[in-house]
Specification:
The protein is mostly helical. It has nine helices and no strands.
């Protein structure tokens, strides 16, 4: 019953959020700030994680596919498809749920407990639309670029590690080029946009309805990250079944 009530409360909040902004100039100013905060500031962690994950996947694939009956290019092929299909969309978004989601929830939650949101409501401002919509649109705008960068950097990380003697670099490149399916990139980008909406909206929901003190803001951030991650995993299963089968 609690899940039904929370879902209804979330739906009503999104109904308030997804309306035309009262002042477009304010919206675009906040939108630009959120692009930097959620997109550009997330880039370093995306680069670091992707390059190391690409390298680790390459080493593990090479060790597990080290069989004279298997062609050596399979390592590059497996690394590429792992990055494209799962890591750069799903796993990366789970990681960003911790960074971006907790940031959004704590920011809005702090505004709630310091009564800044109440002040906006008194002035006749649609606080949900004013505070939450720029965050959702900005994160959905930036996530495809982060995902594509992650794919490229992950494959590059795998290529770099081949020079340690794990395998012949030329074989790795052959595997990357073999049987390339452009649809996989489209699939990952679509998934990531859905996940970006989930992260930003769910985190905003928990922050918006935070109450109490500083401890409750931390609790709201934790709930935002945990529940965003669970919903992402569910929609990952749903979208994979719809788009790849």
């Amino acid at each position: 019953m609690n899940i039904i009530a929370e879902t209804g409360k979330y739906t009503l909040l999104m109904k308030k959020v997804l309306t035309a902004p009262g002042r477009w100039s304010l919206f675009f100013r906040q939108y630009g700030q959120e692009l930097e905060k959620q997109g550009l500031q997330s880039l370093p962690i995306v680069l670091i994680i992707s390059v190391f994950i690409g390298a680790v996947i390459t080493i593990q694939m090479r060790l597990n596919l080290e069989n004279p009956l298997l062609p050596s290019y399979l390592t590059g092929l497996a690394t590429r498809d792992t990055m494209f299909l799962e890591f750069s969309s799903t796993i990366l978004c789970l990681i960003l749920a911790g960074k971006v989601g907790s940031n959004i929830s704590s920011e809005i939650g702090t505004m709630r407990i310091t009564e800044q949101i109440d002040a906006l409501e008194v002035m006749g401002v649609n606080s949900a639309n004013y505070l939450i919509l720029p965050k959702i649109i900005a994160f959905m705008t930036m996530i495809p670029f982060l995902v594509i960068i992650s794919m490229a950097i992950g494959i590059f990380g795998g290529y770099i590690v081949t020079f340690s003697g794990v395998m012949v670099p030329a074989d790795y490149i052959s595997g990357i080029q073999y049987a390339f399916v452009p649809y996989y990139i489209f699939y990952s980008v679509v998934k990531s946009i859905v996940f970006a909406f989930i992260i930003s909206s769910v985190s905003s929901y928990y922050g918006y309805y935070a109450n109490g003190g500083a401890l409750d803001v931390g609790r709201a951030s934790t709930n935002a990250v945990v529940n965003s991650s669970i919903i992402i995993l569910f929609f990952n299963l749903l979208l994979t079944n719809l788009m790849l089968t």
